[in-house]
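mind reviewing this stuff:

——
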Amino acid sequence: MEGNGNGGFGRYFERCKPYIAMISLQFGYAGMNIITKVSLNRGMSHYVLVVYRHAFATAAIAPFALVLERKVRPKITFLMFMQIFVLGLLGPVIDQNLYYAGLKFTSPTYSCAISNMLPAMTFVMAVICRMEKLDMKKVRCQAKVIGTVITVGGAMLMTLYKGEVINLFWSHYMHHPRNYAPTSTSGSGEQDWVKGSILLIIATLAWASFFILQAVTLRTYSAQLSLTSLVCFMGTLQSIVVTLVMERKASVWSIGWDMNLLAAAYAGIVSSGIAYYVQGIVMQKRGPVFVTAFSPLMMIIVAIMGSFILAENIYLGGVIGAILIVMGLYSVLWGKYKEKEAENNMTKLGCLREEDIEANQNQREMQSKGVEVVTINVAKA
């Protein structure tokens, strides 16, 4: 009985691992948003931040890839090299530079709200690339579509409607730190907000494209640690070129033992190195739509952390939007769970059919042998 209990718990934990991994990553991404916002507000160039971020990620992941995957690492063909090159361009260069620029013009909570279009963009791309099955006659497919729409609607509600400020019990004890405030407060705040929104939308589109291409690449290059190291290294080289073009002052490269170093190290090790690796593992089992479905949770975490650390206000629209996001997320995950369950049932049914076919063949063989034996005995008689 004890063995059965342990086996049942083991199977349950095995099923829960993808969910635990993706929820943990959202906490990591939320911390990155807060820390990098503080660093950018204090004057760090987002181009330089991207370079240092992926340099830290490469240094952290590459040793593990060299040791643990030395026997299973596939050879890099020209097509594989081009895929890694484009991955480095989509993720480290386009997505993160534009995301940091948008974050500088807006706020962490708003940036996360715009990023909540990621599941919808990824879902549409996955359907176009035939990575995701869409049969609107089935309830699980309807749940995925409806959940995606509700999630995006909740994110847009948080963006477009603020409502009254909700004073939480810790709000009275929080004071806005002077060093965390934006360095410039010009009259063109609305223009900057629109500019930041456009940059964030383009960044999210690049991020969704990154997930799709990563899923395609992992089909032929299954060494996740090595792929993560190569993408981070390629992103570092590409980001250096972009930074040299965009930043002409040598002083922007200087970094000390301060928040800028913490932002680069944290974002590189947690949000690039570990995140790319974990996403790759989960993506191989559940697909890109499952991985991106958890991204709306990051906004809720950032909103709570922002009220603590950056003394950001929490509005009624944000709370209602967060509730809608959770409902949409649950609908998408329910649809993915039912889809996985149906695939497992089909696999079991296929195995049972194969067993039945083998059993029928064996039975026919035994019957034919029995006929032969009877014939021989009759002949002898």
Remarks:
- Residues 177-187, 373-381 have pLDDT under 50 and may be disordered.
- The chain has one domain: 21-331.
- The beta strands are 165-166, 314-315.
